[in-house]
Amino acid sequence: MIFVISGPSGSGKTTLRGRLLKDKELKPRLANPISFATRPKRLGEQNGKGYFFISEEKFQKKLKAKKILEWTEYLDYYYGTPKDFVETQLKKRKHLILCLDLKGAARIKQLYPKNTVTVFILPPSFAALGDRIGRRCKQTRQQEIAQRLRLAKKELLAASKFDYSVVNENLAQAVKDLKYIILKEIAR
Ligand code: 5GP
Fold first, then answer.
1. Of all protein residues, whose CA lies closest to atom 15 belonging to ligand 1?
2. pLDDT-based confidence at residue 130 (cuts at 50, 70, 90)
3. What is the pLDDT of residues 92-111, one digit of tens each?
4. Which ligand 1 atom sits nearest the alpha carbon of residue 105?
5. Which residue among 4, 49, 51, 71 sits deepest, i.e. has the most Cβ atoms within 10 Å of its Cβ?
């Protein structure tokens, strides 16, 4: 199965994915492809952990060489899922967990319609989302915060197109909800 977690910037997708990957029961069964990204590293981010940070030129080369399964342009930067990793893990019969934007979620569903499960992460409120984006982007420009919020408004409208949605008000509860969805879908 491929579990795609989507939702607006600041909804907590990455934190949730991190928790699921540490879960004793899920850990041995889940693999997490690390995307390529051309955006600058944020303070505290390490290359090869959340992303492989590469130049736009390198990203274009990978696209040409068909090394990227799906990709998106988000606020002038490129993000893409490594194809080889996904294919190898699927051959090993591992389940995958991907954090993608809406375009990526739709593309993966199109590529693997039978075994993709999409989950939309909702913030408890729009104000809470604004707080989270603001806190995270402290070192980034005000302009970027405004752009991310504008995009989030549009993205929230897409929640109903997903197989599931989970409200991330309480982190522990949201992890439980996601774990329940994953185990249920694996067992089907
Ligand atoms: P951020 O800059 O906040 O890390 O990511 C911006 C957006 O790009 C988020 O919605 C994130 O989930 C999405 N994203 C990250 N990696 C990929 C990827 O490989 N493909 C797609 N389609 N979206 C991605």
1. 100
2. confident
3. 999 999 999 999 999 999 99
4. 22
5. 4
